[in-house]
Every structure is written in structure tokens, then in C-alpha cells.
Amino acid sequence: MENDITVYTTNTCPYCIHAKHFLNEQGLEYKEVNVQEDSAAAQRLVEETGQMGVPQIKVNGNWILGFDPQAIMTFVHQDVL
Questions:
Q1: 55: cis peptide before it, omega within 30°?
Q2: Domain total for the chain?
Q3: Could you give the CA distance from residue 70 to residue 36 in angstroms, rounded to a whole number?
Q4: Which stretches of the chain drop beneath a pLDDT of 50?
């Protein structure tokens, strides 16, 4: 089973860089959505989560606010690593 991971970022967020680096280190593929460059995506994100901060990471349908490696790995399908 594949993982469905989306990382919502901005251009200036250091924790977004840490989150992407962590996912790369784990060999996890992800989609990046830059909400600073895509205002429609930013609006959808706020509507869905009620949060404006980044990074926000959706892992297999579960939202994580901020860079939290333990939470990310909790929701990752381990059989694909």
C-alpha cells in the first residue's frame, strides 16, 4: 500500500525544509503544495484544518501541524518502507 503524503509549505519556513528533508531521508515520496504561491490552496487548507501555519502535513488522511517526525511515522504505512 502506497503512502499519500502532502506537505503544505511556504518559501521562508525553516520547519518546512526540515520536514521535506526528513521525508527524503525516510525514502518517502510526497507532494509539496506551496501555499505562499497558491492562494487557492492556502484557502482550502484553512477551510479543511482551521490552521494557517506551516508546515501542515497530510499523511494518509491524517493531519499533522508542524514538523513532528514521530507523528509522521505514526501514520506512514510501514510496509512500503
A1: yes
A2: 1
A3: 26
A4: none
CATH number of the domain that residue 66 is part of: 3.40.30.10
Displacement of CA 28 from its chain's centroid (Å): 11
pTM of the model: 0.92
3-state DSSP call for residue 62?
A: strand
Q: Which of 77, 52, 76 is nearest to 65 (CA)?
A: 52
The continuous run of DSSP H or E covering 70 comes out as helix 69-75
Q: 55 and 13 in contact (C-beta within 8 Å)?
A: yes
Tens digits of per-residue pLDDT, 27-42? Answer: 999 999 999 999 999 9
Amino acid identity, position 29: E
Range of the domain at 50: 5-80
